[in-house]
Write a structure and sequence with these properties.
Structural class: alpha/beta
Shape: globular
Strand order of the largest sheet: 21-22-1-23
CATH architecture of the largest domain: Alpha-beta prism
Distance between the termini: 5 Å
Radius of gyration: 21 Å
Number of domains: 2
Number of strands: 23
Number of helices: 13
Amino acid sequence: MRIRVDPGGRLEGVTRVPGDKSIAHRWLILAATAEGPSSLLNVPPSLDVRSMAWCLGALTDKARPALNGWAANDGVAAEDHRSTWNVEVETGDGGRTGVPLEVEGEGRHGLLEPSQALDCGNSGSAMRMLMGLVASEPFRVVLTGDPSLRSRPMERVAAPLRAMGATIQTSRGHAPVTLMGGPLDGIDFRSPTPSAQVKTAVLLAGLEAAGRTRVREAAPTRDHLERALTTLGAPIEVRDGEVSLSRFQHQGFSGAVPGDPSSAAFLVAAAALTASELTITDVGLNPTRIRFLDVMERMGVRTERVTRREELGEPVGDIHVVGAGAIGPVRVEPSELPLVIDEVPVLALLAAHAPANSRFLGAAELRVKESDRLEGIASGIRDAGGHAAVEGDDLVLGGGGLAGGVIDARGDHRLAMAFAASGLSARASIEIVGAESAEVSFPGFFGGLAALGASIETVGET
């Protein structure tokens, strides 16, 4: 799909974003491996989460009908413009909305050997977390995915799982991954690369390992699994960049997945670039996920946050974009970058409109996402008449705004949405080729942005 974004206009209203993918991945795993039924609301029907649901369905018996049925349903809470994130059905329990996904779990002991390879699609989260889940199981599992996923590094997960006792083969460090699980021993693992996916995989394996499993992080990463396990009563300790736990089997639970703050970041940037006021409701306000708001504040974007409730340990509330003056330059240090890694594309495109240079330092991890985001951001900005360069592992934005032009999203959902938000403040129209990639994480993004007041039009197929 090729869409055109015209500059100008204002965004107005109150809106919601899809459920948080990071949380949904972890809660689906916990629901499929719980002893007893679990009820999940607002599970985002994005392609990545569907991939996780399909894979878990292949590993379970009682949970399979619900997971496969949900993953196969293209009409999950969808309107005619394919928005799946602004449908509200009040249930009278403090903001929870929608039709729940009911999953019947049989515990970790209920996992079964799949009859074929698990296809994780484009989801690195699904593949890496599933490696940790099945590492303790006495059967063979092959995990694969699309060409993009098969190019991403998997040894960072395989290595600590091997140290715990699993037998794992990768294809020169990448997928397909062949894993033969079995009895595991807890380890003391110091993660060389800040990665919530690696941490989650090791902790999931640790829940079935003998002894205690400890993960030490070089920099803090998102803590969704730790919060959920704490709420479910696991013997887990979290302190000073260290997480430790021991064997634990949880019971069924209920929860409404908070709105995805990474998705909200695109709407916050769009509102800031059009001098608009906008409220995003029911969004996750986990401190490990909203550091991008602090970066935006340094750039002149003003927001207000109100926490209204908790869901399985996750704070949930509203983000109100108060407005912005002139967008200013920013410098993001390597120590801060892991906490905004998913938002770098939209932060960079926001910084492209500043009057001076901005720098994102130590951003090598962006090279191994759905695309080489370092090069994708820089070349896309140049294609739109802006100034950007990659210097080693640093992303340098020259500022001065965007003139307009044609951008290739490179099959990357975050690039497609970042350029769309930035195009609202360009000097001429921006056309985005491959805009359908936004469906990976934010179904209905372009229709929702148009409904808020943006000028967006589909102009052709890719």
